[in-house]
Amino acid sequence: MDxxxxxxxxxxxxxxxxxxxKQFYETLLGVQLLPQESSAEFEACRFPxxxxxxxxxxxxxxxxxxxxxxxxTLIYFHVDDCGLIANRAAALGAxxxxxxxxxxxxxxxxIIGDSEGNAIGLHSFQ
Length: 126
Hints:
Layout: E1 10-14, H1 18-29, E2 34-35, E3 43-46, E4 57-62, E5 75-78, H2 82-91, E6 96-102, E7 108-113, E8 119-124
């Protein structure tokens, strides 16, 4: 067993308004989300990258069986400075649930709300 291999390959962040969420995440993280092949049942936009690759792949997902939530699984995005990105989130109208704080040798984290009501983690080493 490879103890250094990350088993996470895919995540979905549930949204109610895909266009609003896409704009929020693109502005917050400075990335371009790409259209994801979908069906009449759901709509999705992918974060950049490919499988297999570094980090987990994922998307924003609008699906009638899934709803945004501030409870449950918490996804962390690595950023250069989670304090600066938390401030950017606040400027975009998002709530900051917990401002930047130290987690010791593993860096810093902050927890924000996104445009859809999900709680999202931010991680940085500075």
